[in-house]
Amino acid sequence: MQSRLVTLEEGKDTAALVRTNQSRVLPLRLLQFLLMFLGVGIAFSIFSMFIVRYFGVENVVPLIQSRVQQCFEEPNSLERWVRPPSSLLHTMNDTELFWRASFVPRMKGYPFKRIPKIAFVFLTRGPLPLAPLWERFFKGHEGLYSIYIHSLPSYDANFPPSSVFYRRQIPSQVAEWGMMSMCDAERRLLANALLDVSNEWFILLSEACIPLQNFSIVYRYISRSRYSFIGAVDEPGPYGRGRYDSNMEPEVNISDWRKGSQWFEINRKLAVDIIEDTIYYPKFAEFCRPACYVDEHYFPTMLSIRSPHLLANRTLTWVDWSRGGAHPATFGKADITEKFFKKFFEGQTCIYNNQPSSVCYLFARKFAPSALEPLLEFALKVFGF
Ligand SMILES: *[C@@H]1O[C@H](CO)[C@@H](O)[C@H](O)[C@H]1NC(C)=O
Ligand SMILES: *[C@@H]1O[C@H](CO)[C@@H](O)[C@H](O)[C@H]1NC(C)=O
Ligand SMILES: *[C@@H]1O[C@H](CO)[C@@H](O)[C@H](O)[C@H]1NC(C)=O
Ligand SMILES: *[C@@H]1O[C@H](CO)[C@@H](O)[C@H](O)[C@H]1NC(C)=O
């Protein structure tokens, strides 16, 4: 007690005083300790005599063993369910992963302070040539986003530890454009991101995508929207309804058939809809093969059946189809001028939360690696980051 009363400011002089006090206190403390030890010893012998008498000797040993074991197990606290996985690597196969990712709490609200995050999930072949632009976009917004990357299994990512992309690669498999393996890769990304209970929104991007607004605007736009953004239109003609196969009935009827680009933004509820689906998946796997491009139909159609009231039916990712052909235009160094960016920001209208809005796109594609340099140059002025 006395030693605690001595404040730091009193300095060296009092230190000697404390020491002499302590040496007088010590024998008394020792005596108290020995008495306590004796007391505990007696109590323990009475207790063990009691145990031996009523339960037999053999029960005492497992009791002690289980106590010892518990000390080495991870304490079963809430923290375990709240904290994001420390590593994105795991040994689950897709069946196991999707099962685990489909766990959904039944109660409203969270018994801890949950700051909802946006999961940016990148579906890539390998490198991320526009990474420096994204690094700038994410800078200063830690805790509001998480990143997941699915690349070809053969690709060995080498981001430095300072990068936001460092160790954000998930276990992957080969994915081919226009095939079901592409949807599998997207589901794998969603499932991995669902393992972090704080991820509330999920944005699918590719290595050719860029952000068009700063992070604050993107976060506000998405978190305040009543709807999720996925293109889903009922398109007549050969490239829309023409790709439907009536073998999909009765799970999918022609009036349910939707088309949209795969670059979506969805909330947690829709992400679970996608990874838990076993009703529509087999139909699409069997009856939507090229020239039916499954990545343009499976999620839009399935979500329009399951959760139509949650969909804005439009995408947030701008793309230029004006040049015609099977692939959208790719922009390189020569295309990136200030005038070029006007088309993203001027003369656009769309519906946001049932109101007209002039902000319709938050992301754009497709950009070649050569576009990086001019993009970095214009980013602050044009995109605000
Ligand atoms: C994952 O492993 C389980 C158990 O071995 C097996 O039943 C299941 O078919 C596997 N799934 C895949 C997609 O390989
Ligand atoms: C984001 O952009 C908006 C509008 O361009 C601007 O008002 C805001 O300050 C920017 N936020 C940050 C964090 O730079
Ligand atoms: C498709 O039509 C059939 C018969 O009209 C109906 O029973 C079924 O529920 C429909 N399916 C969907 C997904 O609406
Ligand atoms: C999107 O389309 C579905 C029908 O597929 C409709 O029920 C829903 O209201 C539409 N969403 C909006 C925001 O209009």
TrEMBL record:
Signal peptide: none
TM regions (residue ranges): 33-56
UniProt-annotated location(s): Membrane
Keywords of this entry: Glycoprotein, Glycosyltransferase, Membrane, Transferase, Transmembrane, Transmembrane helix
MF terms (GO), sorted A to Z: glycosyltransferase activity
A Pfam family of this chain: Branch
Recorded GO CC terms: membrane
Coiled coil: none
Its membrane topology: Single-pass type II membrane protein
Record's protein name: Uncharacterized protein
Organism this protein belongs to: Nyssa sinensis
Lineage of source species: Eukaryota, Viridiplantae, Streptophyta, Embryophyta, Tracheophyta
